[in-house]
Amino acid sequence: MIQINNLMKIYGNTPALEGISFKVEKGEIVGFLGPNGAGKSTTLNILTGYLSSTSGSASVGGIDIYEFPDEAKKLIGYLPEQPPLYQDMKVSEYLNFVYEIKKCRLNRKKHLEEIMQVTKIHDVKNRLIGNLSKGYKQRVGIAQALVGNPPVIILDEPTVGLDPKQIIEIRNLIRNLGRTHTVILSSHILSEVQSVCDRIVIISEGRIVADEKTENLTRMTEDGSDYIAKICGPSREVAKTVREMNGVIFADPTGEREGDAYLFRIRSESGVDIRKPLFNLLAENGWPLVGLESVSLNLEDVFVRITDSDSRARARRKA
Ligand code: ADP
Ligand code: MG
Question: Quick one: 43 and 181 in the same domain?
Fold first, then answer.
C-alpha cells in the first residue's frame, strides 16, 4: 500500500535522510519510531507530498507521489506534527471547510457526523478550536485526516503533549482506525508504538536501523533474561557454583543483603530457561532460594542497543 524507496533529503548542506526504504502492506498499523531529529517528520512530509525529496521515490496504492500528487494525496489522511487547525473556527465549521478543500463527494452531513462520532468530538462541535484542550484539538486533527475516508492514515506524533488519560484515548482511537485503515504512526516513545502497532520501523539519524514485527522485537527483549536472585548461602561460593551452570552468562553478587539472603544478578543465555535448574542446584547445596525476580530487558533497552550499535558502527566508518 505504501512503498518508500531510498529516500534522501538534504537541508542546505545537512543530510536529514540517508536512504530510507520501507513498505507498508494494506491493513497494517506500522510504528515509525525514532528519537527527536531522526527524520520521522521529514519522511512523512515527503510521503504525503508536502515536501520534496532530494532523491528516491514514494508511492501510495501504487501511485507515485511526485508523478500524480493529487491522486496519491486522495488516498492519504495526514495529521502533521503541527496540526493545520484554524483556532478561530468552530469544530463543525472547520470540518466543513476541510470537506470543501478536499473536494469530498460523500454525503456531507452523514460523513461528518460519522467522523465526529468516531473521534468523539460531537460534544464540542460548536466550540471554537482555539478554546479546546490539547486532547480535543488532537482529535479534531485526526478528524480532518479522516475527511474523504482515505484508506491510509498517517499520524505524526499524535500523542505529544497529551496527559496520560488523553494518550490512552488517542491510542484506542488509533487502534480502532487500524481495523479499517492502513496506518503509520510516528513516535519517539517505544511503549506507545509497541502497544498499538503490528510492526515497528526504527529510524535513527536518517537511516532505518530495524524493521521488525512488534512480537519479534518484544521477543528479542525477552531473550537472554536477567534475574535478581535472593539466596541464603556463602556469597562467593554461591556465585562460583551458579556461574558453572549451563546457560548462565554471569552471576554476580550485587553487594546487597536482605536478612540472611544475598542478592545476585544472573544473566541467562537466550532461549535457556535457567529457573528450574537453578532452584534444584541451590537446593542440592543447601542454599535456599528465597526470591527470584525477572528483570528482562524492555523494548527501550533494545532500542538503545540498536541505535547505539548503529551510531558506533558509523563512528568507526568515519574514523
Ligand atoms: P523527527 O521528526 O524525527 O524529530 P525531523 O524530520 O523533523 O526529525 O528532522 C530531521 C533532521 O532534519 C533534524 O536534524 C532537523 O534539525 C533537520 N531539519 C528538519 N527540518 C528542517 C528544515 N526545514 N531545515 C533544515 N533542517 C531541518
Ligand atoms: Mg517530527
Answer: yes
The reported pTM is 0.78
Exposed / middle / buried, residue 57 (Cβ in 10 Å: 0-12, 13-18, 19+):
middle
Question: Which residue stretches of the chain are H helix?
Answer: 40-47, 69-74, 91-101, 108-118, 134-146, 164-180, 190-196, 214-222, 235-243, 275-284, 299-318
C-beta of 37 in contact with ligand 1 (< 6 A): yes
- Residue 184 shares a structural domain with residue 94: yes
Ligand 1: does its nearest atom lie under 6 Å from the Cβ of 177?
A: no
Residues 165 and 293 in one domain: no
From 33, 41, 188, 204, the mutation candidate for ligand 1 (largest count of ligand atoms within 8 A of CB) is 41
State the closest ligand 1 atom to the C-alpha of 42, by its place in the atom list counted from 1.
6
Q: How far is the CA of 71 from the centre of ligand 2 (A)?
A: 25
Q: Which ligand is nearest to the CA of 36?
A: 1
**CATH no. for residue 265?**
3.30.70.3190
Pairing of strands 199-204, 207-213: antiparallel
Check pocket membership of 187 for ligand 1, CB cut-off 6 A.
no
Task: Give tens-digit pLDDT for 82-94.
Answer: 888 999 999 999 9
Nearest residue CA, atom 14 of ligand 1? 37
Q: Shortest CA distance to 105 belongs to which of 149, 73, 145, 142? A: 149
Give the residue from 194, 219, 244 where a domain finishes: 219
Task: Give the model confidence (pLDDT) of 216-254 as tens digits.
Answer: 877 766 666 789 999 999 999 999 999 999 999 899 999
- Which residues constitute the domain of residue 266? 222-299
Q: Which amino acid is at 220?
A: M
